């Protein structure tokens, strides 16, 4: 294996969504690390890391974004001077100035050239640093680090920025309360994981459609179910039947003949695999929030990643089916706005899974910790878990990337 292949094998990548005021996905920030087969994933220097994003990561993720969405890429000092953004399309790439870059004349000249070439410029992690006014003036987007500021400091900073008339992006928005505050202050874009926290409304009733889907989930989530039950579950919903047949006839399956009935699909690919696809569709359907596409993507990506990961584990381990369900149901409370315990009471799943999904310690908890660490680009935590579970960083990196690409394909196919 060549050095470049080894490098790609250990390429850890995360994409963090950026939302509009309507909670639609505006774009993604691309975050990554190269594990170098070490216990802790790390990068030797920022220039090499950004070069890898340009050469590999950007191209991979660009294939998965929708038309009109943007990708933010961090650029350290030397890469700005070398005009490395030339390799990326200006209509998609947003050049993000790291907070470690100083606004010297050379950097400002490089940024001016990028703007003339049509690139959008973003200033990362701004908290009102003294001397950063030239960056504020030249940038199109100012990313404000909400976690580093008190509410009063945040209000003052926004007031000071109004004279520049820039697009304000609130980053590290971790709950709905902070999202609402930033909305009221006039932020246009929002980055953080507020959308993946459940909003529990006392007395809220589940819609009839979601109730039906939960009943279908119950019928196919236990360790034992038969072909007739599965066929009836699918045929009871016209929309699901239609989309599932689209799945079966998609190039992904590569079946030699057109599949024209659910029963035929069961015979061709097996009811267990078909049940997994049905769970994915049902979960995607139950997501009614404006950020539903991203929630569906995360759930499905987690499921596939953990399923692939289960094949790498040595010794006593959870089955691939259990690992798939662990990831798939990990955001169920967010999707439905109800407590996880009450939702899981409706489903016949293992005690270990139920404990982990409810935030309790179990043998399955570490795997949820791993997927969350990946999504938040907490690379030290990712590396520590990989090391403690005696996994190969290269295999984990490949499986996570494969899961991201698979989830994107499935969420696209599952739309009406």
Automatic annotation (TrEMBL):
Asked if the keyword Coiled coil belongs to this entry, the reply reads yes
Name of the protein: EAL and modified HD-GYP domain-containing signal transduction protein
Keywords from UniProt, A to Z, are: Coiled coil
**Residue stretches making up the HDOD domain:** 206-395
Q: Which InterPro entries match?
A: dGMP_Pdiesterase_EAL/HD-GYP, EAL_dom, EAL_sf, HDOD, RNase_Y/CdgJ
Q: Which Gene3D superfamilies match?
A: EAL domain, Hypothetical protein af1432
> What high-level taxonomic lineage is stated for the organism?
Bacteria, Pseudomonadati, Thermodesulfobacteriota, Desulfovibrionia, Desulfovibrionales
Identify the domain of life. Bacteria
